[in-house]
Design goal:
537 residues; alpha+beta; four-stranded antiparallel beta sheet; 6 helices; 40% helix; flat
Protein backbone atom coordinates (compact mmCIF):
# COMPACT_ATOMS: atom_id res chain seq x y z
CA UNK A 1 0.00 0.00 0.00
CA UNK A 2 2.81 2.45 0.87
CA UNK A 3 6.58 2.61 1.36
CA UNK A 4 8.52 5.33 3.21
CA UNK A 5 12.30 5.69 3.48
CA UNK A 6 14.14 7.68 6.14
CA UNK A 7 17.82 8.41 6.65
CA UNK A 8 18.61 5.22 8.56
CA UNK A 9 15.43 3.12 8.42
CA UNK A 10 12.48 2.26 6.19
CA UNK A 11 8.88 1.20 6.60
CA UNK A 12 6.07 -0.27 4.52
CA UNK A 13 2.34 -0.90 4.85
CA UNK A 14 0.93 -4.08 3.35
CA UNK A 15 -2.34 -4.33 1.46
CA UNK A 16 -4.18 -5.45 4.60
CA UNK A 17 -2.87 -2.57 6.74
CA UNK A 18 0.01 -4.32 8.55
CA UNK A 19 3.10 -2.22 9.35
CA UNK A 20 6.65 -3.46 8.61
CA UNK A 21 9.88 -1.64 9.58
CA UNK A 22 13.59 -2.38 9.14
CA UNK A 23 16.97 -0.65 9.40
CA UNK A 24 18.77 1.07 12.27
CA UNK A 25 16.82 1.08 15.56
CA UNK A 26 19.18 2.89 17.96
CA UNK A 27 16.44 5.36 19.06
CA UNK A 28 13.59 2.86 18.91
CA UNK A 29 12.33 4.27 15.62
CA UNK A 30 11.36 0.77 14.40
CA UNK A 31 8.66 0.53 17.08
CA UNK A 32 9.44 -3.07 18.13
CA UNK A 33 9.78 -2.21 21.83
CA UNK A 34 13.59 -2.20 21.78
CA UNK A 35 16.51 -0.33 20.27
CA UNK A 36 17.70 -3.27 18.19
CA UNK A 37 18.18 -2.97 14.45
CA UNK A 38 16.39 -5.15 11.90
CA UNK A 39 18.13 -6.47 8.79
CA UNK A 40 14.89 -7.56 7.08
CA UNK A 41 11.34 -6.11 7.04
CA UNK A 42 9.73 -7.10 10.34
CA UNK A 43 6.08 -6.71 11.25
CA UNK A 44 5.39 -4.37 14.18
CA UNK A 45 3.47 -6.60 16.57
CA UNK A 46 2.09 -3.82 18.85
CA UNK A 47 0.38 -2.27 15.77
CA UNK A 48 -1.19 -5.54 14.65
CA UNK A 49 -4.58 -4.60 16.03
CA UNK A 50 -4.65 -1.35 14.03
CA UNK A 51 -5.13 -0.92 10.28
CA UNK A 52 -2.40 1.47 9.12
CA UNK A 53 -3.04 3.80 6.19
CA UNK A 54 -0.11 6.26 6.17
CA UNK A 55 3.50 6.02 7.37
CA UNK A 56 6.40 8.46 7.23
CA UNK A 57 10.04 7.94 8.25
CA UNK A 58 12.12 10.86 9.45
CA UNK A 59 15.76 11.04 10.49
CA UNK A 60 15.38 8.98 13.67
CA UNK A 61 11.61 8.82 14.24
CA UNK A 62 8.50 7.38 12.59
CA UNK A 63 4.87 8.49 12.34
CA UNK A 64 1.83 6.37 11.42
CA UNK A 65 -1.85 7.19 10.77
CA UNK A 66 -4.42 4.45 11.31
CA UNK A 67 -7.85 3.96 9.76
CA UNK A 68 -9.42 5.61 12.82
CA UNK A 69 -7.40 8.78 12.11
CA UNK A 70 -5.13 8.48 15.15
CA UNK A 71 -1.44 9.39 15.01
CA UNK A 72 1.12 6.92 16.42
CA UNK A 73 4.77 7.97 16.81
CA UNK A 74 8.02 6.42 18.05
CA UNK A 75 11.77 7.06 17.97
CA UNK A 76 13.93 10.06 18.79
CA UNK A 77 12.21 12.92 20.63
CA UNK A 78 15.16 15.17 21.50
CA UNK A 79 13.61 18.14 19.67
CA UNK A 80 10.00 17.39 20.58
CA UNK A 81 9.27 15.99 17.11
CA UNK A 82 6.90 13.30 18.46
CA UNK A 83 4.44 15.91 19.78
CA UNK A 84 4.06 14.15 23.15
CA UNK A 85 4.83 17.20 25.31
CA UNK A 86 8.25 15.96 26.44
CA UNK A 87 11.66 15.06 25.00
CA UNK A 88 11.77 11.36 25.95
CA UNK A 89 12.37 8.83 23.18
CA UNK A 90 9.85 6.02 22.60
CA UNK A 91 10.66 2.49 21.40
CA UNK A 92 6.99 1.54 20.88
CA UNK A 93 4.34 3.37 18.91
CA UNK A 94 2.49 5.81 21.18
CA UNK A 95 -0.67 7.77 20.42
CA UNK A 96 0.12 11.46 19.94
CA UNK A 97 -2.80 13.74 20.81
CA UNK A 98 -3.19 16.47 18.21
CA UNK A 99 -5.43 18.82 20.19
CA UNK A 100 -4.72 17.81 23.80
CA UNK A 101 -5.70 14.83 25.92
CA UNK A 102 -9.32 15.95 26.39
CA UNK A 103 -10.03 16.78 22.73
CA UNK A 104 -11.52 14.18 20.38
CA UNK A 105 -8.97 12.34 18.24
CA UNK A 106 -9.18 10.52 14.93
CA UNK A 107 -9.00 13.31 12.33
CA UNK A 108 -5.51 12.96 10.78
CA UNK A 109 -5.32 12.11 7.05
CA UNK A 110 -1.65 12.72 6.17
CA UNK A 111 1.70 12.84 8.00
CA UNK A 112 5.26 13.75 7.01
CA UNK A 113 8.37 13.39 9.21
CA UNK A 114 11.75 15.02 8.66
CA UNK A 115 15.02 15.69 10.46
CA UNK A 116 13.73 17.35 13.64
CA UNK A 117 10.04 18.10 13.06
CA UNK A 118 6.81 16.43 11.98
CA UNK A 119 3.75 17.72 10.10
CA UNK A 120 0.17 16.39 10.17
CA UNK A 121 -2.81 17.27 7.96
CA UNK A 122 -6.30 16.83 9.39
CA UNK A 123 -9.57 16.11 7.64
CA UNK A 124 -10.55 19.77 8.16
CA UNK A 125 -7.46 20.88 6.14
CA UNK A 126 -5.69 22.06 9.30
CA UNK A 127 -1.89 21.80 9.31
CA UNK A 128 -0.19 20.92 12.63
CA UNK A 129 3.56 21.01 13.30
CA UNK A 130 5.77 19.90 16.20
CA UNK A 131 9.54 19.83 16.67
CA UNK A 132 12.27 22.46 16.50
CA UNK A 133 14.05 24.50 13.87
CA UNK A 134 14.25 28.09 12.74
CA UNK A 135 10.90 28.83 11.10
CA UNK A 136 9.63 25.22 10.87
CA UNK A 137 6.64 25.83 13.19
CA UNK A 138 5.18 28.39 10.77
CA UNK A 139 4.72 30.91 13.60
CA UNK A 140 6.94 34.04 13.83
CA UNK A 141 6.85 33.77 17.62
CA UNK A 142 7.99 30.14 17.91
CA UNK A 143 11.05 28.16 16.85
CA UNK A 144 10.13 24.96 18.69
CA UNK A 145 7.11 23.17 20.10
CA UNK A 146 6.86 19.90 22.03
CA UNK A 147 3.13 19.66 21.25
CA UNK A 148 1.25 19.97 17.98
CA UNK A 149 0.90 23.66 16.98
CA UNK A 150 -1.44 24.76 14.20
CA UNK A 151 -0.08 26.81 11.27
CA UNK A 152 -2.41 29.80 11.37
CA UNK A 153 -1.27 31.13 8.00
CA UNK A 154 -2.92 28.15 6.23
CA UNK A 155 -6.24 28.25 8.07
CA UNK A 156 -8.20 29.35 4.96
CA UNK A 157 -6.07 27.71 2.22
CA UNK A 158 -7.79 24.27 2.05
CA UNK A 159 -4.52 22.32 2.12
CA UNK A 160 -4.59 18.99 0.27
CA UNK A 161 -1.06 17.65 0.84
CA UNK A 162 1.96 18.30 3.07
CA UNK A 163 5.67 17.46 2.75
CA UNK A 164 8.46 18.00 5.32
CA UNK A 165 12.12 18.42 4.44
CA UNK A 166 15.23 19.14 6.47
CA UNK A 167 14.34 22.39 8.25
CA UNK A 168 11.49 23.36 5.91
CA UNK A 169 7.94 22.38 4.95
CA UNK A 170 5.73 22.56 1.85
CA UNK A 171 1.93 22.56 1.64
CA UNK A 172 -0.20 22.08 -1.48
CA UNK A 173 -3.37 24.18 -1.43
CA UNK A 174 -6.58 24.03 -3.41
CA UNK A 175 -6.08 25.10 -7.03
CA UNK A 176 -2.41 24.02 -7.21
CA UNK A 177 -0.93 26.79 -5.02
CA UNK A 178 2.24 25.71 -3.15
CA UNK A 179 3.21 27.33 0.18
CA UNK A 180 6.64 27.02 1.84
CA UNK A 181 8.26 28.05 5.11
CA UNK A 182 11.44 27.28 7.06
CA UNK A 183 15.13 27.32 6.15
CA UNK A 184 16.28 28.84 2.83
CA UNK A 185 19.63 27.04 2.48
CA UNK A 186 20.50 25.96 -1.08
CA UNK A 187 17.26 27.50 -2.40
CA UNK A 188 15.14 24.64 -1.05
CA UNK A 189 12.06 26.89 -0.58
CA UNK A 190 11.96 28.09 -4.20
CA UNK A 191 11.67 31.71 -2.99
CA UNK A 192 14.82 33.45 -4.33
CA UNK A 193 13.93 36.84 -2.84
CA UNK A 194 14.06 35.47 0.74
CA UNK A 195 17.33 36.32 2.56
CA UNK A 196 16.42 34.83 5.95
CA UNK A 197 14.38 31.85 7.18
CA UNK A 198 10.70 32.22 6.26
CA UNK A 199 8.53 31.97 9.38
CA UNK A 200 5.10 32.40 7.73
CA UNK A 201 3.73 30.18 4.92
CA UNK A 202 4.58 31.99 1.68
CA UNK A 203 3.29 31.06 -1.78
CA UNK A 204 5.90 30.04 -4.36
CA UNK A 205 5.16 32.40 -7.23
CA UNK A 206 7.20 30.36 -9.73
CA UNK A 207 4.57 27.58 -9.43
CA UNK A 208 1.49 29.79 -9.38
CA UNK A 209 0.43 28.89 -12.95
CA UNK A 210 1.88 25.37 -13.22
CA UNK A 211 -1.19 23.40 -11.98
CA UNK A 212 0.77 21.47 -9.33
CA UNK A 213 -0.79 18.12 -8.40
CA UNK A 214 1.80 16.65 -5.99
CA UNK A 215 4.75 17.82 -3.86
CA UNK A 216 7.68 16.01 -2.24
CA UNK A 217 10.67 17.00 -0.06
CA UNK A 218 14.09 15.45 0.47
CA UNK A 219 16.89 16.39 2.86
CA UNK A 220 17.62 19.71 1.16
CA UNK A 221 15.54 19.65 -2.03
CA UNK A 222 11.91 19.94 -3.03
CA UNK A 223 9.97 18.80 -6.12
CA UNK A 224 6.53 19.47 -7.59
CA UNK A 225 4.56 17.43 -10.13
CA UNK A 226 2.64 19.61 -12.59
CA UNK A 227 -0.30 18.73 -14.79
CA UNK A 228 -0.16 18.59 -18.60
CA UNK A 229 -0.13 22.05 -20.16
CA UNK A 230 1.46 23.95 -23.04
CA UNK A 231 4.79 25.63 -22.51
CA UNK A 232 5.00 29.40 -22.42
CA UNK A 233 7.11 31.11 -25.07
CA UNK A 234 9.50 32.38 -22.40
CA UNK A 235 10.34 28.76 -21.41
CA UNK A 236 11.48 27.69 -24.90
CA UNK A 237 14.47 29.11 -26.76
CA UNK A 238 15.31 26.17 -29.01
CA UNK A 239 13.59 23.42 -30.97
CA UNK A 240 12.53 20.54 -28.74
CA UNK A 241 13.36 17.99 -31.47
CA UNK A 242 16.57 19.06 -33.23
CA UNK A 243 17.76 21.38 -30.38
CA UNK A 244 18.58 24.19 -32.83
CA UNK A 245 18.03 27.78 -31.75
CA UNK A 246 15.17 29.66 -33.36
CA UNK A 247 16.08 32.26 -35.97
CA UNK A 248 14.63 34.06 -38.98
CA UNK A 249 15.10 31.03 -41.22
CA UNK A 250 14.24 28.55 -38.46
CA UNK A 251 10.99 30.03 -37.19
CA UNK A 252 9.29 28.94 -33.98
CA UNK A 253 6.04 26.97 -34.33
CA UNK A 254 3.84 25.38 -31.70
CA UNK A 255 2.59 21.84 -32.09
CA UNK A 256 -1.17 21.88 -31.47
CA UNK A 257 -1.12 18.27 -30.25
CA UNK A 258 1.69 18.09 -27.65
CA UNK A 259 2.04 21.84 -27.04
CA UNK A 260 5.82 21.95 -27.61
CA UNK A 261 7.85 24.44 -29.66
CA UNK A 262 9.56 23.26 -32.84
CA UNK A 263 11.39 24.84 -35.75
CA UNK A 264 9.89 25.03 -39.23
CA UNK A 265 11.87 21.97 -40.37
CA UNK A 266 10.51 19.82 -37.53
CA UNK A 267 6.86 20.98 -37.90
CA UNK A 268 6.06 20.94 -41.62
CA UNK A 269 2.84 18.94 -41.46
CA UNK A 270 -0.75 19.97 -40.81
CA UNK A 271 -3.61 17.65 -39.83
CA UNK A 272 -7.05 18.21 -38.27
CA UNK A 273 -7.29 17.53 -34.51
CA UNK A 274 -10.93 16.88 -33.72
CA UNK A 275 -10.22 16.02 -30.07
CA UNK A 276 -9.00 19.60 -29.52
CA UNK A 277 -11.72 21.20 -31.63
CA UNK A 278 -9.59 21.84 -34.76
CA UNK A 279 -11.68 20.78 -37.76
CA UNK A 280 -9.33 22.42 -40.24
CA UNK A 281 -5.72 21.17 -40.53
CA UNK A 282 -3.37 22.71 -37.95
CA UNK A 283 0.39 22.49 -37.56
CA UNK A 284 1.87 19.56 -35.64
CA UNK A 285 5.42 18.37 -35.07
CA UNK A 286 6.90 15.51 -37.09
CA UNK A 287 6.73 13.09 -34.15
CA UNK A 288 3.03 13.74 -33.49
CA UNK A 289 2.26 13.61 -37.23
CA UNK A 290 3.93 10.23 -37.56
CA UNK A 291 2.13 8.89 -34.50
CA UNK A 292 -1.30 10.27 -35.47
CA UNK A 293 -1.16 9.25 -39.13
CA UNK A 294 0.38 5.83 -38.60
CA UNK A 295 -1.98 3.21 -40.07
CA UNK A 296 -2.79 0.08 -38.14
CA UNK A 297 -2.35 -3.35 -39.83
CA UNK A 298 -5.29 -4.04 -42.16
CA UNK A 299 -6.55 -0.44 -42.10
CA UNK A 300 -7.71 0.87 -45.47
CA UNK A 301 -6.24 4.17 -46.55
CA UNK A 302 -8.83 6.89 -46.86
CA UNK A 303 -8.94 8.88 -50.09
CA UNK A 304 -7.44 7.96 -53.43
CA UNK A 305 -4.02 8.71 -54.77
CA UNK A 306 -3.55 10.30 -58.16
CA UNK A 307 -2.59 7.01 -59.79
CA UNK A 308 -5.61 5.25 -58.32
CA UNK A 309 -7.89 8.04 -59.51
CA UNK A 310 -6.56 7.95 -63.06
CA UNK A 311 -7.07 4.18 -63.11
CA UNK A 312 -10.83 4.52 -62.57
CA UNK A 313 -12.68 2.76 -65.39
CA UNK A 314 -14.29 5.11 -67.97
CA UNK A 315 -17.91 6.16 -67.70
CA UNK A 316 -20.44 4.15 -69.66
CA UNK A 317 -23.76 5.36 -70.96
CA UNK A 318 -26.66 4.20 -68.85
CA UNK A 319 -24.38 3.02 -66.01
CA UNK A 320 -25.79 4.34 -62.64
CA UNK A 321 -22.39 4.09 -60.91
CA UNK A 322 -20.82 6.19 -63.69
CA UNK A 323 -23.45 8.90 -63.28
CA UNK A 324 -22.88 8.88 -59.48
CA UNK A 325 -19.08 9.22 -59.90
CA UNK A 326 -19.54 12.06 -62.36
CA UNK A 327 -21.79 14.01 -59.97
CA UNK A 328 -19.32 13.49 -57.08
CA UNK A 329 -16.36 14.70 -59.14
CA UNK A 330 -18.29 17.80 -60.25
CA UNK A 331 -19.09 18.64 -56.63
CA UNK A 332 -15.45 18.11 -55.62
CA UNK A 333 -14.23 20.44 -58.36
CA UNK A 334 -16.78 23.09 -57.38
CA UNK A 335 -15.78 22.80 -53.68
CA UNK A 336 -12.08 23.08 -54.51
CA UNK A 337 -12.70 26.12 -56.69
CA UNK A 338 -14.74 27.78 -53.92
CA UNK A 339 -11.58 28.26 -51.80
CA UNK A 340 -9.79 30.21 -54.57
CA UNK A 341 -10.15 33.83 -55.75
CA UNK A 342 -13.22 34.68 -57.81
CA UNK A 343 -11.10 35.24 -60.90
CA UNK A 344 -9.86 31.65 -60.79
CA UNK A 345 -12.98 29.76 -59.67
CA UNK A 346 -15.07 30.19 -62.88
CA UNK A 347 -12.25 28.96 -65.07
CA UNK A 348 -11.88 25.85 -62.93
CA UNK A 349 -15.60 25.13 -62.84
CA UNK A 350 -15.81 25.46 -66.59
CA UNK A 351 -12.54 23.56 -66.98
CA UNK A 352 -14.13 20.63 -65.21
CA UNK A 353 -16.26 20.15 -68.36
CA UNK A 354 -13.98 21.51 -71.11
CA UNK A 355 -10.52 20.26 -70.06
CA UNK A 356 -11.01 16.87 -71.60
CA UNK A 357 -8.37 16.24 -74.21
CA UNK A 358 -8.36 13.65 -76.91
CA UNK A 359 -8.71 10.18 -75.48
CA UNK A 360 -9.62 11.41 -71.93
CA UNK A 361 -12.74 10.33 -70.12
CA UNK A 362 -14.93 12.84 -68.22
CA UNK A 363 -13.62 11.45 -64.92
CA UNK A 364 -10.04 12.07 -65.98
CA UNK A 365 -10.88 15.61 -67.08
CA UNK A 366 -12.45 16.34 -63.69
CA UNK A 367 -9.39 14.92 -61.98
CA UNK A 368 -7.18 17.25 -64.00
CA UNK A 369 -9.39 20.18 -62.95
CA UNK A 370 -9.02 19.20 -59.30
CA UNK A 371 -5.24 18.97 -59.61
CA UNK A 372 -5.14 22.37 -61.28
CA UNK A 373 -7.26 23.92 -58.48
CA UNK A 374 -5.01 22.41 -55.85
CA UNK A 375 -1.83 23.63 -57.58
CA UNK A 376 -3.21 27.17 -57.92
CA UNK A 377 -4.24 27.20 -54.28
CA UNK A 378 -0.80 26.01 -53.18
CA UNK A 379 0.90 28.60 -55.38
CA UNK A 380 -1.23 31.35 -53.83
CA UNK A 381 -0.26 30.19 -50.33
CA UNK A 382 3.38 30.07 -51.36
CA UNK A 383 3.17 33.62 -52.74
CA UNK A 384 1.65 34.84 -49.49
CA UNK A 385 4.39 33.14 -47.50
CA UNK A 386 7.05 34.56 -49.84
CA UNK A 387 5.60 38.06 -49.36
CA UNK A 388 5.61 37.59 -45.58
CA UNK A 389 9.21 36.37 -45.74
CA UNK A 390 10.22 39.42 -47.80
CA UNK A 391 8.70 41.72 -45.19
CA UNK A 392 10.45 39.87 -42.38
CA UNK A 393 13.71 39.98 -44.34
CA UNK A 394 13.38 43.74 -44.83
CA UNK A 395 12.72 44.20 -41.12
CA UNK A 396 15.69 41.99 -40.31
CA UNK A 397 17.95 43.98 -42.65
CA UNK A 398 16.83 47.22 -41.03
CA UNK A 399 17.52 45.76 -37.60
CA UNK A 400 20.89 44.52 -38.86
CA UNK A 401 21.80 48.00 -40.12
CA UNK A 402 20.82 49.52 -36.76
CA UNK A 403 22.88 46.91 -34.93
CA UNK A 404 25.83 47.52 -37.27
CA UNK A 405 25.67 51.27 -36.63
CA UNK A 406 25.51 50.67 -32.90
CA UNK A 407 28.44 48.25 -33.20
CA UNK A 408 30.55 50.80 -35.10
CA UNK A 409 29.86 53.44 -32.44
CA UNK A 410 30.74 51.05 -29.65
CA UNK A 411 33.89 49.93 -31.49
CA UNK A 412 35.08 53.53 -31.88
CA UNK A 413 34.36 54.20 -28.21
CA UNK A 414 36.29 51.07 -27.23
CA UNK A 415 39.27 52.18 -29.34
CA UNK A 416 39.33 55.57 -27.59
CA UNK A 417 39.02 53.94 -24.19
CA UNK A 418 41.82 51.52 -25.04
CA UNK A 419 44.11 54.40 -26.04
CA UNK A 420 43.41 56.26 -22.82
CA UNK A 421 43.93 53.07 -20.81
CA UNK A 422 47.27 52.47 -22.52
CA UNK A 423 48.52 55.98 -21.67
CA UNK A 424 47.39 55.57 -18.08
CA UNK A 425 49.14 52.20 -17.91
CA UNK A 426 52.43 53.74 -19.05
CA UNK A 427 52.17 56.40 -16.33
CA UNK A 428 51.43 53.80 -13.68
CA UNK A 429 54.38 51.65 -14.79
CA UNK A 430 56.70 54.63 -14.49
CA UNK A 431 55.41 55.47 -11.02
CA UNK A 432 55.71 51.83 -9.98
CA UNK A 433 59.34 51.67 -11.05
CA UNK A 434 60.17 54.76 -9.01
CA UNK A 435 58.44 53.36 -5.95
CA UNK A 436 60.21 50.02 -6.43
CA UNK A 437 63.64 51.70 -6.56
CA UNK A 438 62.92 53.62 -3.34
CA UNK A 439 61.74 50.44 -1.66
CA UNK A 440 64.90 48.57 -2.73
CA UNK A 441 67.12 51.27 -1.26
CA UNK A 442 65.22 51.18 2.02
CA UNK A 443 65.39 47.39 2.10
CA UNK A 444 69.14 47.39 1.65
CA UNK A 445 69.58 49.94 4.42
CA UNK A 446 67.26 48.04 6.74
CA UNK A 447 69.01 44.74 5.96
CA UNK A 448 72.39 46.26 6.83
CA UNK A 449 71.07 47.63 10.14
CA UNK A 450 68.95 44.66 11.28
CA UNK A 451 71.00 41.62 10.25
CA UNK A 452 71.75 40.67 13.85
CA UNK A 453 68.15 41.30 14.94
CA UNK A 454 66.98 39.01 12.17
CA UNK A 455 69.22 36.19 13.40
CA UNK A 456 67.91 36.64 16.94
CA UNK A 457 64.32 36.61 15.65
CA UNK A 458 65.00 33.36 13.80
CA UNK A 459 66.36 31.77 16.99
CA UNK A 460 63.30 32.93 18.94
CA UNK A 461 60.98 31.60 16.23
CA UNK A 462 62.77 28.24 16.33
CA UNK A 463 62.40 28.01 20.11
CA UNK A 464 58.74 28.97 19.86
CA UNK A 465 58.21 26.29 17.19
CA UNK A 466 59.76 23.65 19.43
CA UNK A 467 57.56 24.79 22.33
CA UNK A 468 54.47 24.61 20.10
CA UNK A 469 55.33 21.07 19.02
CA UNK A 470 55.80 20.07 22.65
CA UNK A 471 52.42 21.57 23.58
CA UNK A 472 50.76 19.79 20.63
CA UNK A 473 52.18 16.47 21.84
CA UNK A 474 50.85 17.16 25.33
CA UNK A 475 47.48 18.10 23.87
CA UNK A 476 47.32 14.85 21.87
CA UNK A 477 48.17 12.89 25.00
CA UNK A 478 45.45 14.73 26.94
CA UNK A 479 42.93 14.08 24.15
CA UNK A 480 43.73 10.37 24.13
CA UNK A 481 43.35 10.25 27.90
CA UNK A 482 40.07 12.14 27.63
CA UNK A 483 38.78 9.71 25.01
CA UNK A 484 39.76 6.80 27.26
CA UNK A 485 38.03 8.47 30.18
CA UNK A 486 34.91 9.06 28.11
CA UNK A 487 34.79 5.43 27.04
CA UNK A 488 35.38 4.34 30.64
CA UNK A 489 32.63 6.67 31.83
CA UNK A 490 30.28 5.31 29.20
CA UNK A 491 31.07 1.71 30.25
CA UNK A 492 30.54 2.66 33.90
CA UNK A 493 27.27 4.35 33.06
CA UNK A 494 26.08 1.28 31.19
CA UNK A 495 27.15 -0.91 34.12
CA UNK A 496 25.35 1.41 36.56
CA UNK A 497 22.21 1.26 34.43
CA UNK A 498 22.39 -2.54 34.35
CA UNK A 499 22.98 -2.64 38.14
CA UNK A 500 20.03 -0.32 38.65
CA UNK A 501 17.83 -2.55 36.52
CA UNK A 502 19.07 -5.63 38.41
CA UNK A 503 18.48 -3.86 41.74
CA UNK A 504 14.94 -2.98 40.73
CA UNK A 505 14.35 -6.57 39.66
CA UNK A 506 15.75 -7.89 42.95
CA UNK A 507 13.72 -5.42 44.98
CA UNK A 508 10.59 -6.51 43.18
CA UNK A 509 11.53 -10.16 43.86
CA UNK A 510 12.17 -9.41 47.56
CA UNK A 511 8.83 -7.63 47.81
CA UNK A 512 7.19 -10.65 46.25
CA UNK A 513 9.00 -13.02 48.66
CA UNK A 514 8.04 -10.76 51.59
CA UNK A 515 4.39 -10.94 50.56
CA UNK A 516 4.64 -14.72 50.26
CA UNK A 517 6.24 -14.97 53.75
CA UNK A 518 3.54 -12.79 55.21
CA UNK A 519 0.84 -14.97 53.68
CA UNK A 520 2.62 -18.09 54.97
CA UNK A 521 2.80 -16.62 58.50
CA UNK A 522 -0.88 -15.80 58.44
CA UNK A 523 -1.63 -19.36 57.29
CA UNK A 524 0.52 -20.79 60.12
CA UNK A 525 -1.25 -18.59 62.66
CA UNK A 526 -4.59 -19.90 61.51
CA UNK A 527 -3.38 -23.50 61.77
CA UNK A 528 -1.94 -22.88 65.26
CA UNK A 529 -5.24 -21.35 66.44
CA UNK A 530 -7.12 -24.35 65.09
CA UNK A 531 -4.78 -26.74 66.91
CA UNK A 532 -5.28 -24.87 70.18
CA UNK A 533 -9.01 -24.97 69.80
CA UNK A 534 -8.83 -28.72 69.13
CA UNK A 535 -6.65 -29.31 72.24
CA UNK A 536 -9.06 -27.40 74.44
CA UNK A 537 -11.98 -29.32 73.09
Amino acid sequence: RQISCGTWHSSAISSNGELFTWGLGVWGQLGHGSCDSAMVPTMVRPMHEHICLKVSCGFMHTGVITRSGEVFVCGDNSRGQLGLGDKVARSTFTVSSLFGEQAPQGCAVDISCSMSHSVVLTAESRVLVCGAGEGVIGDPRLDSSKVWAEVRGLADKRVQQIAAGEGFTLALGDGGAVYAWGAIDDGRLGIPEANRPVRDPTQITALSDKHVTMIACGAGIAAALCGHQWLSEADSKECMLCKCSFSLMRRKNRCRNCGGFFCSDCSRNRIPLLKFGYETPVRVCNVCHERLTKRKPGEVQRGRSRAATLAVPPLRAGDPSSRRRLSLDENSATAAAGDLPRSVAPSLQSGAHSAAGPGMTPVESHEMALLRAQSLKESQVMRQEAQKLRKELAAAEAARDAIQARYDALFAENVRNASRAKDREAELIKMLREVQEKADRRDREAAAQSGKAHDNAQDDAKRLQERVEELEQQLDTARRCNEGNESTIKVLQDAMERLAEQSETRLALLEHQKDEAKKLKEENDRHFSLLRSNEKS
